[in-house]
Specification:
The complex is a heterodimer of chains A (112) and B (112). Chain A has 112 residues and is an all-beta fold. Chain A has no helices and eleven strands. Chain B is mainly β and 112 residues long. Classes of the chains: A mainly beta (112), B mainly beta (112).
Chain lengths: 112, 112
Amino acid sequence: GENVEQHPSTLSVQEGDSAVIKCTYSDSASNYFPWYKQELGKGPQLIIDIRSNVGEKKDQRIAVTLNKTAKHFSLHITETQPEDSAVYFCAATAGGSYIPTFGRGTSLIVHP
Amino acid sequence: GAVVSQHPSRVICKSGTSVKIECRSLDFQATTMFWYRQFPKQSLMLMATSNEGSKATYEQGVEKDKFLINHASLTLSTLTVTSAHPEDSSFYICSAEDEGYTFGSGTRLTVV
């Protein structure tokens, strides 16, 4: 089955800096890669996603890149703000399955 | 976008009692819903796939007699934790797929 590795487990940045979270996946059949933000005591919320036919996608301060050859994808957050502090999960969904495999999560801390 | 509503958000129950958690898709029909369990500072663990009108599919190691799942309509799935014990205390989250994979807000269960 699919295996998703996520790094780092904890990321601490100063407000205004950029943050990058990286994930790798094992199943070359995976074709959908969502990113979720989970605030304390809440369910994960989809913040951005990318499909395998696209190399990069951007939504305001958030961007995701995908390298299918290397089987890795990354989340980039620019101009970080304290409200960006949360746990971020990457996921990969293999073709034919609609159940994503999640990474272990990254706790992002943005210091004012 | 798709909205998944989960209730209650938190519940405290006594050991030996049963607790029911509801998951509703508010603006779409979901023939399939998913139930996750999340331990502190850990990723999401898929417990079972809830199928409307048929039996749920449980992941390996999940006791189906302990965690009863009912998916009686296209918009409602329920998870009942039977004869709850302190080790069942956890954060339970449901999800459903519409155009994306959407999570509920989660239920914090504390068994005392």
